[in-house]
Amino acid sequence: MKKLLMILFLFLNFSSQALSRELSCKDNPKCKNFPKVTKIQGIKYPLTMVQKQKGEKPTGDDYYIFHFKPLHKKPSPYVVIIPTSGGIGEAAAVTKERYAKKLLQRGFGVIILDIFYNTGITKGTITRGPASSMGALSSIEYLKSEFPNLTNNKFGIVGGSRGGMTVLSLAGELIRENYLYKNVKHWFDAGVAFYPSCGKQKLLMPVVVFIGELDEWVSSTNCKMWKNRDPEQISSGMLQIFIYKNAHHGFNREMHKKLVRSTEKNHDYVGRASQYNQEADKDSEIKMIEFFEKKLKLQ
After folding, report:
1. I want to staple 100 with a disulfide (CB 3.0 to 4.6 A). Which of 86, 110, 209, 286 is the partner?
2. What is the pTM (predicted TM-score) of this model?
3. Tens of pLDDT, residues 182-241
4. Contact 287/252 with Cβ under 8 angstroms?
5. What distance in Å separates the CA atoms of residue 284 and residue 208, rounded to the nearest whole number?
6. Distance CA 118, CA 84 (A)
């Protein structure tokens, strides 16, 4: 069983749900209200035995973030928002900015991670490896070292689709046994996963999952099964799963008012639907913010 879970973990971190065209906020007009992009140094990867024998020094990737500082400039909880496998296109940018503004108004600081900024990669997340998870964790290190007076040392993470799967992997125990993450010092305290691929796992931080019953990209049935088969984590409040009727994948993308299906031009998985659902969007937004207020704000 443990071997099976490790295979699943590796799949979530190193493969792509689909090879879609990836976008960054660079030259994206919908990102015009974002703060100036900041380049940060990533957590260094541990050396392999061969690298040690060669006398090599540890290296890490650089990442690009948009830092929305807390409005009141005092120690505050932070939420890191990560992209889907498609990066930050126009619809994603609009939703992410809305979330950032709402969180700022409620006393949070926000970081939006753009894993495709300045990469030159236009298709396929497999070539980026653990960029999303390591980039998100590196954002914590950046805040603690560069802005220690702005953070209360409580951190949340939000992701949808592929990003939602990253949230779930960061919430579990297996990732902390992975040698690749040996140099990670600080982990997240709470996570929100929008329409991820669900599977029962032991969580080390509280998580909320939101998914539409009509989702064709990932199975809402798997999330329902997890909810039914994990009464201990549900009853303890460690896990919450909300399944919205009549809601598709991307139900929180307000730019997708009409149902759209993927085509050969924009995705390798053709014909799968996405559509905005106002009821699911508004309810999940309220629940997300209330969840982070409960889990991240120091009393």
Report:
1. 110
2. 0.89
3. 999 999 999 999 999 999 999 999 999 999 999 988 999 999 999 999 999 999 999 999
4. no
5. 10
6. 17
